[in-house]
Amino acid sequence: MERITWHFPPAISSRKLTRESEQQLFYQLAIEFSDILNRNVQINNGLPILFEDRVTLVHYQAKQFELTINLRKDPEPIVNISQLSVQPQNQGLGTKIVTHFLRRLSDTSYERVILDTRNDEDRRFWRSLGFKPSDRDWHLDWFFKIPH
């Protein structure tokens, strides 16, 4: 399988968020995604995010939009994008969402974003965002290191 790593633009800020501010960021992203999409984005079907030490699930959803991520702290701070769906396609919405999301992560403690895709069209999308093959053997297809 092909492995991809993203080489990021410079971080927006060099300061790290506190744990509480980092958690708040994931709530704030729903508001920011709503602004990008012009749709009301909800988190976890209206339920609070339960931040756990090992794995935290965050599901953003709106009409014709879903983004599901898993936040892992152990053994390495990783964000796993497990689902992204934006309609209509080929209008730049997915690119805007992902680019914004990745830039916001640069102030967090997370070191990598990983994802798994087996679809050639999806791979073209991720490649268009700058993902490149990696020499590390991860259990998921593609990943990139978040710049800090």
TrEMBL record:
One of the record's GO molecular function terms: acyltransferase activity, transferring groups other than amino-acyl groups
Tagged with keyword Transit peptide: no
Keywords: Transferase
Superkingdom, taxonomy of origin: Bacteria
Keyword DNA-binding: no
Organism: Paenibacillus cremeus
Family annotation (Gene3D superfamilies): 3.40.630.30
Domain N-acetyltransferase: 12-147
InterPro entries referenced in this protein's UniProt entry, alphabetically: Acyl_CoA_acyltransferase, GNAT_dom
The protein, known as: GNAT family N-acetyltransferase
